[in-house]
Amino acid sequence: MARITYIDEQGHPELSAQIGSIKSGRGALINIYKLLLHSPPVAMSWLEHSNTIRWGSTLTPRLRELVIVRIVSAMQYAYALQQHVPTIALADGVSAQECEALNDWRASGLFNQAERATLAYADAMLDGPEVSDEVFDAVRQHYGEREVVELTVLVGTYLMHNRVFRALRVDNEPESGT
User: Fold this and answer.
1) Other beta carbons less than 10 A from residue 137's beta carbon
2) Which residues contact 89 (CB under 8 A, 6 or more apart)?
3) So what's the pLDDT on residue 77?
4) Topology of the domain comprising 61-168
5) pLDDT tens for each residue of 27-85
6) Are 120 and 127 spatial neighbours (Cβ–Cβ below 8 Å)?
7) Are 93 and 111 in contact (CB under 8 A)?
């Protein structure tokens, strides 16, 4: 159960513009925004940042999902797992078998060299805060500076999401609300 009350859309007409923006960007007013709307500027900056890192980067959808699913699996981040596996992951080219293999990706033969370097980089950030030169250099063999920045911020974003969701105990969405 969430530690902060959820904003009831009908009970807050003063938030109609923000709620409209969230619904147009997310399709629905999901639980995290029902909590974040206690601080409308925070809710809107979260929406903009999340949309930018997910949809405004040059990373391929498949690579983004591999990284996201790896992070949320390793952190046992149930809310994001429910959102991404299998629906978003499958749509972005990551099979259910690959999602499962991300739990022990090093032992799997399902990922190419660039993906393995990326997953090692994400793991290093999970273990962080330092990333070894060896791990960083392996990522740089496959990606330019922009992609490395976007990859790094993507990992950092999902680390932050995990911390916020867990601290506030954001409830998973009802099955019909995802």
Assistant:
1) 10
2) 65, 69, 95, 96, 98, 99
3) 84
4) AhpD-like (1.20.1290)
5) 899 999 999 999 999 999 999 999 999 889 999 999 999 999 999 999 988 888 888 89
6) no
7) no
